[in-house]
Each structure stands twice: as C-alpha cells, then as structure tokens.
Amino acid sequence: MKAAVFSRYGPPEVLEVKDVHKPVPKEDEVLVRVHATTVCAGDWRIRKADPFLGRIITGLWRPRITIPGMEFAGTVESVGKAVTHFSAGDEVFGSPGFKFGANAEYVCVRENGTLAKKPVNMSFEEAAAVLFGGVSALYFLRKARIQSGQKILIYGASGSVGVFAVQLAKHFGAHVTAVCSTPNLDLVKSLGAEQALDYTREDFSKAAQVYDIVFDTVGKSGWARSLKVLKRGGYYVRVGGSGRLLSMLGDIVRGMWVTFTGAAKSIGGIAGESAGDLEFLKRLIEADKLRTVIDRRYTLDEIAEAHRYVEAGHKKGHVVIVLEQTKC
C-alpha cells in the first residue's frame, strides 16, 4: 500500500509517499481502507519534533512513528476473528490515536478504540475531519464545566478545534464570542457565535465584557489579556502554544499560580477521550447540529504541500487528504 512516510525529523520535504507493507489486523482489530484523512497540528508537530521534548516518546534521534495521520474515514476491509461490532463493507470513521498512521491507504484500529459507523449525512471527507477537533473541543469544554447561560470567548474560533468549540458551546447553551481573522467572521457566525471579533482590528480585552470561560484554541490569546476579561475563578483553557520549552514551563507556572490564588482555573495539556465521545458527536452530526469545515483538499502525493499549509497556521477548519484508491 501507499503511505506518507518520514524517516527523519525536519521540514515538510522529509515526507515521501512510499510503498509499505499493508497492515494485518490482530484478533481485536479492524482493517480500514482509507478514503479520506487529514493533516492536523499533531501531524506536523511529530514530523518536526516540536516540542523537542516530544522526542522522548517519538524517538530521540530518529522517529519511531513514521506515518502521520490522526483521523480517517473509510470502508472496513476485514476484521479480526474476535471482532463482533464491525463487518467488511461498513463505512466508518475514527482515529488510531497517538499511534498515528492514518495518512495511508489502510489503517488498523482496535474494535473498542476510537471507531464508529460513519454518520449517514456526511461524506467520507467530512467525516474524516471530525475526530481531532471534535474530541478536543468536547474534552476541554467539559473540563471547564460549561453550562447553559454562561459566556464563553473562543480565541482561534475558525481553526480545527475552534469550529467545533463554537458549535458545541452553543449546543450546551452558552453565549459565544468568537475571535478570528477578517475572512472568517461570517463563518464563525454561521456556526452559531452571537458575536465575532476580528483580532486584526480590535483587542478583545478592551471590549468591556467578562466571560465565564476563555477558550484559547491556538495558545495566542495571552495570559494578561485573557485574565483581564475572565471572571474571578473562571476557566482559562489553553490548547496549542509555541512548543518552546521556556514558554511551556512559563505556562505551567502561571497556571499553577492563578489556580492557587483563585484568580482563575487553568486547564491545558492533551485532550483525553471518554467512552461514548465519538457516538455523542455522531448523534449531533446526524441531528444536523454539528458540521465540519473543510478549507483545502489535497491528494496523498501532495502531503508535503498540505503540511506546509497547515503549519503556517492560517487554515480555516480542516485540511483533508483524499486518497486515490489503487489495488495493493
């Protein structure tokens, strides 16, 4: 099968499309023929080893994970003999998690892992873009104990996590103020934001509003500005960031301090997943209460170009890789 592969850390050019062995499902695994996958922040970070400390997990000198890709949608090719909930021909969507490997023509996922039948009202391309942003947004909104009637500011509202954060916050009954760039103001309003602020023209911290939650999906809102508009004891959620060691340590210390003093409750780190999250998102999708936003589509042969675009940090929603299926 063909897959996007990198054998050393570096810029997008280290990625190559190569023929590799087609995976064989274990007893409890499902083999999926991938029709669409994505490039998200986690993909370019493992390729670039950003932050550097990530090499402790991915390989100090050479990457142990060589095929990127955290989400996919496709058709079940075959199943292990212990699998009972999926059959060949099922249309599914899911994630291999931090094993990565979805930027390929085939991927194996455990039956009780992150895998579900594809929403009936979504294409493969749309369904492939649900997991990373949807699960991350859901996880952090729940950690912040979002409630109906609360006010939430979502910074970076037009990115892959942001577009789901806006929609899910609205589903939970919150009043949403979205911060994004000029071209994306109409988009975030169409997703449900009551107010949209253009960060290139106005400073959200000077708008004389107070929020129960400030959700920074890109790590660029700034501590001082965010705490200025956050009610005392409110939740400050930070996702992403520069990846630089000193910056990460600084964020940890600030988070501990504001939590200790009671100024705010700081939440960050890596999103976890609870049982039922994928089915919860699927139900909202099939009820037409949640949708994906696709910015650009690339072929697998254009994987380096896709990485370059995503790493630049200006994408709107998701970048999808559409696979041209061939016999393997």
Question: What features would you describe in this structure?
Answer:
- The chain is α/β, with parallel strands linked by helices and 328 residues long.
- The protein has helices at residues 41-48, 55-58, 124-128, 131-143, 162-171, 185-190, 223-229, 245-261, 277-286, 303-311, and strands at residues 2-5, 16-19, 29-39, 72-79, 91-95, 106-110, 114-117, 151-155, 175-180, 195-198, 211-216, 230-238, 264-267, 294-299, 318-322.
- It has two domains: 2-130 and 292-322, Quinone Oxidoreductase, Chain A, domain 1 (Alpha-Beta Complex); 133-267, Rossmann fold, CATH 3.40.50.720.
- The protein has ten helices and 15 strands.
- The chain is globular.
- The termini are close together.
Distance from N terminus to C terminus (CA atoms, Å) equals 5 Å
The major beta sheet can be summarized as: 7 strands, mixed
Structure classification: alpha/beta
What is the overall silhouette?
Answer: globular
Low-confidence stretches: none
CATH class of the largest domain: Alpha Beta
Mean pLDDT: 91
Number of strands: 15
SSE ordering: EEEHHEEEEHHEHEHEEHEHEHEHE
By CATH, the superfamily of the largest domain comes out as Medium-chain alcohol dehydrogenases, catalytic domain
Into which percentage range does the β-strand content fall?
25-35%
Predict the CATH topology of the largest domain: Quinone Oxidoreductase, Chain A, domain 1
Radius of gyration: 20 Å
How many domains make up the 3D coordinates? 2
Helicity level, as a percent range?
25-40%
| Count, helices | 10
